[in-house]
Amino acid sequence: MKNLLVLTGGGDCPGLNAVIRGIVKRSIAEKEEWKVWGSIEAYHGLLRDPMEVVLLSNSRVAGIHVKGGTILKTSTKGDPFNYPVQKEDGTWEMEDRSELLIKRLKELEIDAVVSIGGDGSQKISKRLHDLGVPVVGVPKTIDNDLSATDFTFGFQTAVEVATDAVDKLVTTAESHHRVIIQEVMGRDAGWIALHAAIAGGVEVCLIPEIPYDINKVVDRINQRYERGRGFANIIIAEGAKPLGGEMLSKESDEVGYQMKRLGGVSYVLSQQMKDADCAADLRVVVLGHLQRGGTPNAFDRILSLTFGVKAFEMAKDRKFGRMVVYKNNDFKEVSLEEGTNAYNTIDVENNYLIKAARGLGISFGD
Fold it and tell me: What is the enclosing helix (H) or strand (E) of 334?
């Protein structure tokens, strides 16, 4: 009997449940008997007293591939190397709980760990592997910002949500002669914005990789108006910034959350456009977490289920310290170090979608 532990870390996204199902289904097909366990809320499940670890049976994962979120829940505040611990006086301190984590994995007789998560989660996986933990990584993020894989699951569904929003907002913009600014996620990468901009046919697409000139944005919009009539749609990625400016972000005041919070750049853009004498009536829509929730589309289901199958096979073959990736229309594997050593931003000089967008007349504000 062998034991495999699965956990989902970082932000939720469509396809997490499909990966879990892929792992469990593939383990059942194996002649050697395996038990698959799940740690609740990432590493919290192992580090809490009592531990929160559940058996993932065939019946427990039945049909979950069509559901959003994760049946194991997730957390962005459970780094075992920098773990939040509340003291008796109510204050919080950050402690290294990695030794306790390793001890409990041994107590549970875990032969392999599959960590499903994004860049931050896989960097934790790399550190744990360096300490001897038998871990395999599965890349997850709607931002598509891991360079070792062509796509991360959740991204295509997020693009569909953003594109559907463009389709809806175009009609209301046209009806009222307005400009609607739609803000999408992506952090430092503009992949969601770029894909949705092309699919939706927007006028302006502002992404982190191309700082925008507000005067050029306004000039482009003003060209759409004649005698006060016209309309346009703008997509802006949450990490976009003006020429000479900085990304709009703030430090989190939540205990254990270590990333800066983004969001609200669309409101800043709206005010900048007004200050630059934009002729249009402006409205703002922030999609926010709508892009992360809900049912995964067919592409993300297939990608996630296959990632799960591949991850189990890597664990079975003891290919630890590695991450499954989708590269050149095939499922491969790379080291966790290679999987996290480069952030996947858009190469604005050579990316074919940037060239296609410009050919379609989409402005990047440059």
Answer: strand 330-335
